[in-house]
Amino acid sequence: MSEVSRSFATAQVQAGYVPAQAENTAVPPIHQSNAFEFASLSEARDLFALRREGNIYSRAANPTVLVFEQRIAALEGGVAAAAVASGQAAVALALLALARQGEHIVAARQLYGGTVDLLQDTFADWGIEVDFVDQDDIAAWSAAVRPTTRALFAESITNPNAQVLDVRAVAAIARDAGVPLVIDHTVATPYLQRAKDFGADIVVHSATKYLGGHGTSLGGVIVDLGTFDFGADPERWPQLALPYRRVAGGSLVERFGGTGSPFIALVKTKYVHDLGPSLSAFNAFQLLQGLETLDLRMQRHSASGLAVAAFLAEHPAVTRVSHPGLASSPWHERAKEYLPRGAASVFSFDVASSGDPLADFDRIERLIAALRIVRLVANIGDARSLIAHPASMTHSHLTAEQLAEAGISPTTLRLSIGLEDPADVIADLGAALATLEG
Fold this sequence. Notes:
The chain is an alpha/beta fold and 438 residues long. It contains 17 helices and 12 strands.
C-alpha cells in the first residue's frame, strides 16, 4: 500500500519514516524511541539471546546512549561502559554487580553523603555489609578485607574536602585481596586523572556533573577498565564465571571475556534490565554536547578554583581551606603525582565558629544570603559557581561522629567554582565574608 492510499489515521502514525534509514548527520542524533523494529523474528530471537548486537528496547540500549558509552570508555581507556540515569545509580549498580547478599565491601569514610546513605542503609537492607575506613590509612584498608570482600570503593577526589586518594596504594591492597578497586571519578574526570594508569579496575561517574557540565541533565556511567580478570577465580564470581541463564550456552566470561566486558554485560542485562535506571536518549545527547568541551572547561574550572582557594586562604574570616592545589594542603604532594593537569574546583572552606551551633548556622545563612554570583545549589561541576552547606544539606544524614571523620564541621562550606570570571567570584565571596566581620 502506497503512502498516498493510506488512511489519515495510518498516515499520521507512519508516513515519511523508514526504519533503518540512516541520515548522514555530523552530530550524533537523538534516537528518541522507546523501541526498535526488527527485520525478522529470527533477528529478534538472536538479539534477545545476545547472539548478535543491535537495538531492542531503550531501557536496555539506545543508539544515542551507546555513543556516549563508547566515548567515555575511550576517554578512560576502558573496554566498555554502561550509561545509567544518575551517578547514584552508577554507584549502586556497579557495586551490586560485584557484591551479593552475605558479601562485603570496604569503602572510604570520606564519601559523598548520598553514597554513605546508600551503603550503610540500603545495602544493609539487602544483606551486603560495608566497612568504612579512613582513605589515607592504608593499613586500615588491608585490615578491613575479609574472605567475603568483593570490592574496594573510594572517590579519587573527595566531595566536599578535595582529599586526593593514593590510588596506587589502595589498588595494591585490592590486588592482594583479589578484588577490583572501584573509583568514583566524578570530581577528577578522565581529563584531570586517568585512574586506570594508577591501578583502578572500574570507574563510575555522575555525568550530571563535569562530564555534562551545564547543570541540565542527570546521568551516570560505569566503565570497566579491562584490568580485572573475573575468570581467574570462578567460585568468587559465579555471577560472571558460571553459566548465566540469560545467555544461552555459557557464562558471561565465556561470551564476552575475549572481546568485551563480562562485568558491563552483567550490569546491563541484569541490573539495568531488571531495575530500569536507564539514561534517556535526550539526556545522552546533552551529555555528549557537554563532553565535547570537557578539557577546555576543566582547565578553566581548575585554574579558577585554585585562584579562589588562594584568596580564601588569606582571608581573616576563614579558618581553613581544603584544596590540594595549596602548598598548605596535606594532599598537595599527592596532587602533584595524581593530578598533573590541575586540582579540583570542588573544595571546602571553614569560617570561624562562635561555639554556638544555632548562632553559627545563622552566620552561615547570612553569608550565603549576601552572595550574588555564587548560587546556593545542591550540585557540583556546573558552569555556574555553586555553594552548599554540607552539614545541613548533602551530608545531613551523617552522625556527628561521621561528619567529624569526614572533616565536615558546622561551619564548613563547599564550593564548586564555575566558568565565570574568577575575579567576580572572589569579589562576591569577599563581600559575603565581610558580613561576618561586621
